């Protein structure tokens, strides 16, 4: 019996609630209209947000202009994966560029596939679709130039150091050769003096090869004079390494560290060009209007129910 009464009471309360809401429908409608008008006003003044995206991957060696060739000549021992090295530097620069736009952060870069560094998705948001696409392309082009300038600048420094080292080595080799020639001529001159003092006119030895400086006088005065005259006019004797260094130096001098012309330095490849967005990210007009209507309905219903509750309390306590 008590359960039946309770059920009847719940049904009566629910009907009463619906009746109150129906009686207060004007309040609810007004509330919905106010929130809808506010939503429309927000939509009218809110800035639109369009996002252009691009997918980038490491460049091919052919996209790095003459940089790989220059590196191969400058530092033959360099075994780095130049393509991935350049791409990693480019990605880090784009990430640093994104920090400049905080707190709005319209520029964003993240791996296309989680945990992979072979592909990145770069996005840029703006108030129009064309601005988003253009801005993204501009940022990528600007960072590409920065990367190119950085790598070529470092290569120029390494090239300069390498050329200085080779020039130093060549100077040292020439100096060593000059010293050897001077010592040889001095030894021959001393031997000539001994030959003249001992009146050695003809060769007094059978084997000339391996003759020590102290025994050179035994070649005889005429032979020594001839040798001194010849060796004085002879060019310096320079080793094969000297000429190898000169060839390397010439090759380094011919390097032109520039990406001007038809071959441009590209620090990345496009897997997807910057897109022209066709759906804006914000504001979502339909969603905002729907939410505003729901919010207005809830506020209006709340006002109606609160009024009904206050009225019931006054009826139960007329003295209050």
Automatic annotation (TrEMBL):
Species, as recorded: Obesumbacterium proteus ATCC 12841
Cell compartments where the protein resides: Cell inner membrane
Molecular function terms, GO-annotated: protein tyrosine kinase activity
Database matches in Gene3D superfamilies: FepE-like
UniProt membrane topology term: Multi-pass membrane protein
Keyword match Cell membrane: yes
NCBIfam families in alphabetical order: PRK15471.1 (NF012015)
Pfam families named among the record's database cross-references: Wzz
Domain Polysaccharide chain length determinant N-terminal: 10-86
Keyword hit for Protease: no
Ranges annotated as spanning the membrane: 27-45, 287-310
Keywords: Cell inner membrane, Cell membrane, Lipopolysaccharide biosynthesis, Membrane, Transmembrane, Transmembrane helix
Main localization, broad class: membrane
GO BP field: lipopolysaccharide biosynthetic process
Protein name: Chain length determinant protein
Residue stretches in coiled coil: none
GO CC field: plasma membrane
Family: Belongs to the WzzB/Cld/Rol family.
Pathway: Bacterial outer membrane biogenesis; lipopolysaccharide biosynthesis
